Amino acid sequence: MRSIMALPALLITPAVAVAQTDLPAAGTLLEVSAQGRTTRVPDVATIRAGVVADAPTAAAAIAEQARRMAGVLAALRRAGVGARDIATANVGLNPQYRYQDGQAPQVTGYQASNSVSVRFRDIVRAGTILDALVASGANQINGPDLSIDKPDAALDEARVDAVKRARARADLYAGAAGLRVVRMVSIAEAGEDAGQPRPPVFYARVAAAAAPAPTEIAPGEKDVTVTLTIRFLLN
Fold it and tell me: Residue 1: pLDDT band by 50, 70, 90 thresholds?
């Protein structure tokens, strides 16, 4: 049996596979990996917002962060963010130390923190809400992470594009070798990217006062990709 160089898959964790178990009796097998792509404008923004409070005692630090956090949650409710889009992300309490040469560390106070993960389904309003959070007492903001709420249709478009790209590449190799593509033997889905959030693009620990200029969030576009590995029979 003749063989043409096989291309490695771009991703290594298979998710879906559709294949024929019977191999052709004669012909040349060609394996092609192709990535299909489409784009979407993100329609969900996720941020992490919270408060950090310092005090001489643990009880005072906890009380202060609870007071500030109540203001943050109230600001989110006033902005129309639903309860299903607000989730506690972290609650912490840590002693603060002073270090001196030759002496054991001494506790100088405590730092309490509390943060929530918040989803915004209207990205245009996300910047305004961020400013309102700061004005209400939030002094820690992480995000926004932009994503696509329902990526299934976009993923299907990317799959179709991947098949077309793989077939075009198979025709190219077959023509170069003086052969023709007879049929597809197997299709394996090697990975997908549904436009999920990337590492946060904005982080700040700020004073509890509104910014002088409104914060703007630009959603841009996200790539949605699917990688397929397809085997073709050439003759």
Answer: very low
Q: Which of 87, 207, 88 is nearest to 139 (CA)?
A: 207
Tell whether the model's pLDDT for residue 13 goes beyond 80.
no
Is the Cβ–Cβ distance between 115 and 89 less than 8 Å?
yes
Helix (H), strand (E), coil (C) string for 136-147: HCCCEEEEEEEE
> Would you place residue 114 in the very low, low, confident or very high pLDDT band (cuts 50, 70, 90)?
very high
pLDDT, position 233: 96
Q: Is 18 left (phi over 0), alpha (psi -120 to 50) or beta?
A: beta
Measured in residues, the chain has a length of: 235
All domains in the chain, ordered by first residue: 16-41+151-194+225-234 (3.30.110.170), 44-147 (3.30.70.2970)
Residue with tokens 């049929």: 183
* Cis check: omega of the bond before 42, within 30 degrees of 0: no
Q: Which residue has the tokens 């793989």?
A: 166
Q: Is 211 exposed, middle or buried (0-12, 13-18, 19+ CB in 10 A)?
A: middle
